[in-house]
From TrEMBL:
GO annotation terms (biological process): base-excision repair
The protein's name: Exodeoxyribonuclease III
Binding site for Mg(2+): N7, E35, D151, N153, D247, H248
Site annotation Important for catalytic activity: residues: D222
Record GO terms (molecular function): DNA binding; DNA-(apurinic or apyrimidinic site) endonuclease activity; double-stranded DNA 3'-5' DNA exonuclease activity; metal ion binding; phosphoric diester hydrolase activity
Annotated active site: Y108, D151, H248
Site residues (Transition state stabilizer), renumbered to this chain: N153
Family listed: Belongs to the DNA repair enzymes AP/ExoA family.
Any Pfam family matching the protein: Exo_endo_phos
Site (Interaction with DNA substrate) residue list: H248
Entry-linked NCBIfam families: exoDNase_III, xth
Length: 261
């Protein structure tokens, strides 16, 4: 079973830059999308290309902002899109689906910057992290297989961005944000990519300034985290840094089919 995640930075824009061809080649069973930035009625041109997929999209109340979407080869057994807090739900950042015993979360974690890059949204960002953690804690504690995929908007360690010293005071690499990811790891969540690849130079987001991506001056902020109950089923984790169409690239895992029970 192949599960992929991609912040598409606007699905309509990414669609015109090769998204459909990528999806056809992906061999994915489940695909989580973040920063869709469109309502269902604005995606009508995409639906014919997705007719073989079960699809679910959640838009933000604010037009052209945030939003997540989930595509799957088989229909999920159930779907949840609410975190139980209007302040979070209004931004369309969360989906939870179940396939048999497997729980999959697709989330677009907030950026900590306010309008003036003033770090004013870090409290909101950390509260979102904690709400997702708390929601999943009973499942993790009972040993259920859970995968949390998406744009986490945080580089966990110095190895996860090209210029750590220059970014210690920037959202995405402040001590408070990194500590929140540490808390997940201490609780037993597995950073699936690092379970297979310990080395440097692997990133999932690059500034759109000219030449930055070509020089691989990036950040690894997109993840698939596995609960202790899911970790034994992991077979592979990867970053598709060669795939363009967004300022992010896809990430994913391959898991044993037995994970669904």
């Amino acid at each position: 079973m192949r599960i992929l995640s991609w912040n598409v930075n606007g699905l309509r824009s990414c669609w015109d830059k090769g998204f459909q061809a990528w999806l056809q080649r992906s061999r994915a069973g489940v695909v989580g999308l973040q920063e869709v930035r469109a309502r269902d009625d604005q995606l009508a041109d995409c639906w014919p290309g997705l007719r073989r997929w079960h699809r679910a999209f959640v838009a933000a109340e604010r037009p052209g902002y945030s939003g997540v979407g989930l595509l799957s080869r088989r229909p999920p057994d159930d779907l949840t899109t609410s975190l139980g807090d209007p302040a979070f739900d209004a931004e369309g950042r969360f989906q939870q689906v179940r396939f048999g015993k497997l729980l999959v979360v697709n989330a677009y974690f907030p950026n900590g910057n306010g309008k003036d890059r003033d770090l004013s949204r870090i409290p909101y960002k950390l509260a979102f992290y904690r709400r997702v953690f708390e929601l999943l804690e009973p499942e993790r504690a009972r040993g259920a297989p859970v995968l949390v995929m998406g744009d986490f908007n945080t580089a966990h360690r110095e190895i996860d961005l090209a210029r750590p010293r220059a970014n210690v005071k920037n959202s995405g690499f402040t001590p408070a944000e990194r500590e929140e990811l540490d808390r997940w790891i201490r609780a037993g969540w597995v950073d699936t990519f690092r379970a297979f690849e310990p080395g440097p130079g692997h990133y999932t987001w690059w500034s759109q300034r000219f030449g930055v991506r070509a020089q691989n001056i990036g950040w690894r902020i997109d993840y698939v985290l596995a609960s202790p109950g899911a970790a034994p089923y992991l077979r592979k984790a990867f970053i598709q840094a060669h795939v363009e169409g967004s300022d992010h690239c896809p990430v994913g895992v391959e898991v044993d089919d037995a994970i669904t029970g």
